Amino acid sequence: MNEIHFDFEAFLTIASVITGVLWILAYYFKKISKNSSFTLTTIDQIGSFFPVLIFVLVVRTFVFEPFRIPSSSMMPTLLTGDFIYVNKFAYGLKLPVLHDTIINVGKPKQGDIAVFRYPEDQSLDYIKRIIGLPGDHIRYDQRKKELYINGKVIKQELLGSYSGLMDDINRDKRAISKTEQLGSKNHMMFTENHVRHSYEYLDVVVPEGHYFAMGDNRDHSSDSRVWGFIPERNLVGRAVFIWMHWRTTDFLEGLKRIGTKLI
């Protein structure tokens, strides 16, 4: 999820405040008007949008928000063209725009697929898998494709060739399909032996109030290995399931992804 988006949340907040004020003014003017056949004014008409706007704002801010996947960094779990349901309640109730947590109802768990605001540009939404929690010691050997958490190597099982839907970035390449055990979650992932990065070995400790995340498409993902940790206040929510898939190629196969639970 690597694209600039219109800040709809800020728009909804501002629109709700403006229409709310006008809604109150219209109600007040009706009360003091001696004319029982009070005619709807522009103020009254604009203010009438307030209940709808505030409902949409509350649902979008505190309950759920739909997202579209525009990149291949989470293959094979997520593909370009997937539309996902994100539970925004999972990581606490946050104020719109300011993003401060007002009610702490939960924290990310190891293995969660999380949506968050990109630390280097708050206008971008990213989606990755949570690898390290605050205080965790993370090591990653790029040459061996091995991940260590708190001194223990994370179990991987080789699956071989992948026969499912593929994005262009991995077509005709030597993607190696594996499963990986993170906490209680066993998920699929890709690596490619011939891919090289600027780092050979990563060794970090996750600071308090931050998280370490990686894409399932390990060698085609810009993640915490590149740009660092995710501040807790940047968390948007936990991806739950795919509610729609749309692509011009492999249309029928894409439809089979609808309703897929994300683990």
Features:
single chain, disordered N terminus, four-stranded antiparallel sheet, 263 residues, 31% strand, seven-stranded antiparallel sheet, Umud Fragment, subunit A, alpha+beta, 2 domains, elongated, 5 helices
Classify the fold: give the CATH topology of the largest domain.
Umud Fragment, subunit A
CATH superfamily of the largest domain: Umud Fragment, subunit A
Radius of gyration: 23 Å
Number of domains: 2
Listing every helix as H and every strand as E from the N terminus to the C terminus, the arrangement reads HHHEEEEEEEEEEEEEEHEEH
What is the overall pLDDT average?
Answer: 82
Helix segment tally: 5
User: How many β strands by DSSP?
Assistant: 16
Beta-strand content = 25-35%
Largest sheet: 7 strands, antiparallel
What form results from the Cα inertia axes?
elongated
What does this entry look like structurally?
The protein is of the alpha+beta class and 263 residues long. It has two domains: 1-62; 65-255, Umud Fragment, subunit A, CATH 2.10.109.10. The protein is built from five helices and 16 strands. A seven-stranded antiparallel β-sheet has the order 1-2-16-5-6-14-15. Helix 1 (8-32) runs antiparallel to helix 3 (50-62).
Structure summary:
This protein is of the alpha+beta class and about 260 residues long. The protein has five helices and 16 strands. Helix content is about 20%, strand content about 30%.
